[in-house]
Amino acid sequence: MQTFIPISLLLGAFASISQGASIPTARFQFSVADIADATNKWAADTSKVSQFLSRAPILLGSDLTTAAQVALAAEKDELTHKSVLDQQFAANPSVQSAKNTLENPNNFQFVVDGLTTLSNGAALSAKQVSDLVDQINLTRCKNVLPAIDRYFSASSAVLQNGLSLVANRPNNCP
Predict the structure, then answer these.
(1) Of 46, 105, 127, 168, whose CB is crowded by the most CB atoms within 10 A?
(2) Residue 18's pLDDT is what?
């Protein structure tokens, strides 16, 4: 069973982690705080995108483009946090499978491309916006978010905080 945990709870839980603890790997070494920070920031970025996609179908014109630009920046920022976890979990088969899913151009890049279109879409009709959001959500909810969940699961195992974080879904996931 997956549990949705508010980011504010995670911030408090991660803040209590010892700054000096570290998790050795074959080639890299990150502190528990680094892993918690990357996970927390990735969760926050994912949440921003999900919140945008939940309300995008009712936005038009400059309201749409402004909100889409924020979501696009958050989506791109996710790669920064993914990079930390990619290095940490290079030997984890579940994370490697998730990485392969995200790096497939028909998944994460498809979401970036869709958000880019929306961020430049002041002239899009309500139907065009709705159709594009549906296409983005189909890919994101089916492939991207479950892959992010696998990263978060690996982080939870390292953090040993008893929390099971999953990526926030938009309310219009198919």
Answers:
(1) 46
(2) 35
The alpha carbon of residue 167 and the mean position of all alpha carbons in its chain are separated, in whole angstroms, by 6
Strand partners, 24: 29
Phi-psi label, residue 38: left if phi above 0, alpha if psi -120 to 50, beta otherwise: alpha
All structural domains of the chain? 7-159 (1.20.120)
Cα separation of 113 and 150, whole Å?
23
- pLDDT tens, residue by residue, 119-148: 999 999 999 999 999 999 999 999 999 999
Name residue 158's amino acid: V
Tokens 């959001």 appear where?
Answer: 133
Cα–Cα distance measured from residue 16 to residue 126, given in angstroms and rounded to the nearest whole number: 45
pLDDT, residue 29, reads 65
